[in-house]
Amino acid sequence: MAGASIAPTPLLKDELDIVIPTIRNLDFLEMWRPFFQPYHLIIVQDGDPSKVIKVPDGFDYELYNRNDINKILGPKASCISFKDSACRCFGFMVSKKKYVFTIDDDCFVAKDPSGKDINALEQHIKNLLCPSTPFFFNTLYDPYREGADFVRGYPFSLREGAPTAVSHGLWMNIPDYDAPTQLVKPRERNKRYVDAVMTIPKGTLFPMCGMNLAFDRELIGPAMYFGLMGDGQPIGRYDDMWAGWCTKVICDHLGWGIKTGLPYIWHSKASNPFVNLKKEYNGIYWQEELIPFFQSATLPKDCTTVQKCYIELSKQVRAKLAKVDPYFTKLADAMLTWIEAWDELNPSTTTTA
C-alpha cells in the first residue's frame, strides 16, 4: 500500500513544471524524489549568482540565476525581485507548460493521519482538474470529491461549476504566520490535519502563501506576479499576498475559482521573527489600506483577458495607492513591465483586442 498514491504514469507529466526559488543546495528534493522526479523543474537561484547550487542526480531541471534573468529580460529584469522568494515568478514566466506547482526548499513530505506520505503534487493536480464553486458555497466542502456531492438547496444551474485557476495548499508543523504572531506564539505548531478542500467564495479575499501552490498557467499565469520585494525595496514577505489579491480580483471578474485546503506539506523551519518583522513592517501597516482597495476594486467589462485585467489593476494601484507610499507608483510601473515581459516570452498567450 505504501506506494499506492504514486500512479504508474504521473498525472500531467508533460504539462506541468515545478518552480523552486532557492539560495542553497537542493538536498530537500531527495525526500520528494518519488513524486517530483518524473517532472521538469525550474530552479530560480536567488542571491549571489556565482554560488554553485547543487541539485541531486536524476532530476530534469533548468536553473536560472540573476545573470540569466538579466540576459533574458534585459532592462525588463527590473521587475523581478532580488534577495526575496518573489524571484520565483521568473520561473512562471519562462515555463512553457500549462500548469505550475511551486514549493519552497524548506518544505518536506507530510504524512496523513494514517502515516502515509502525502503526494502533494497529485492532490494539487486533482484540485486544478475539477471545477470550483465560487458563486454559491457548498457546506459539504468540495462537492466534486469522491464521497461528496451538492447539498440540498444548491442551485442546479450552478452545479457545473467554474474552471479552477489556483490550488492553495496548507502546512503541517510551522504555520505561515507573520512576525508579530511568531513572536507571541514561538512554539506553536500545526498538528491538525483537516481532510477538506473548499472554494473561496467570489468577493472574498484570502492570504495566499506561495510555499505550496499550484495554478493553471494558461488561465491565470500573467496575474501571478509576486511584486517588487526584497533587496532595494521597502517591503518583503508580501510577494505572495500581492499576487493572491490581484489574482482573486481577476478570477472573480473572469468567473474562475480558487481552491484552498489539501494538500498539506511539512514546513520544516520557522524564519527569524525579528528579521521578518523588519521585512514586513511596512506591509503590516499598509495592508490596512491595501485590503479595502482590493475589496472595492472592480474591472470594466472590456477587460476580457488576464493581461487587460492586470494592466487595469496597475492603473488603479497608481491612482489610489500612491498616496499610501511612493513605492506603489514604482510597483504599478513594475506590474506593466511584468506584463510586457510575459507577452514577449509567451506570444501565444497574448490576445489582441
Can you give the mean pLDDT?
Answer: 95
Give the helix/strand class. Answer: alpha/beta
Top CATH class: Alpha Beta
Question: Which overall shape is indicated by the principal axes computed on the Cα atoms?
Answer: globular
Termini separation comes to: 53 Å
Task: Please indicate the count of domains.
Answer: 1
| Strand segment count | 9
Residue stretches low in confidence (pLDDT < 50, at least 5 long) are 1-7
Keywords: Cell wall biogenesis/degradation, Glycoprotein, Golgi apparatus, Isomerase
Subcellular location: Golgi apparatus
Family: Belongs to the RGP family.
GO molecular function, one term: UDP-arabinopyranose mutase activity
Q: Which structural traits does this protein have?
A:
353 residues, alpha/beta, Spore Coat Polysaccharide Biosynthesis Protein SpsA, Chain A, 9 strands
Characterization of this structure:
- One of its GO terms (molecular function) is UDP-arabinopyranose mutase activity.
- It is found in: Golgi apparatus.
- The chain is built from 10 helices and 9 strands.
- Strands 1, 2, 3, 4, 5, 6, 7, 8 and 9 form a 9-stranded mixed sheet that branches.
- Strand 1 (16-22), helix 1 and strand 2 form a beta-alpha-beta unit.
- It has one domain: Spore Coat Polysaccharide Biosynthesis Protein SpsA, Chain A, CATH 3.90.550.
- It has helices spanning 29-36, 66-73, 89-94, 120-129, 179-184, 217-220, 239-254, 273-296, 306-321, 327-345, and strands at 16-22, 40-45, 60-64, 99-103, 107-108, 164-173, 197-199, 212-216, 257-267.
- The chain has 353 residues and is of the alpha/beta class.
- Mean pLDDT is 95; it is low at 1-7.
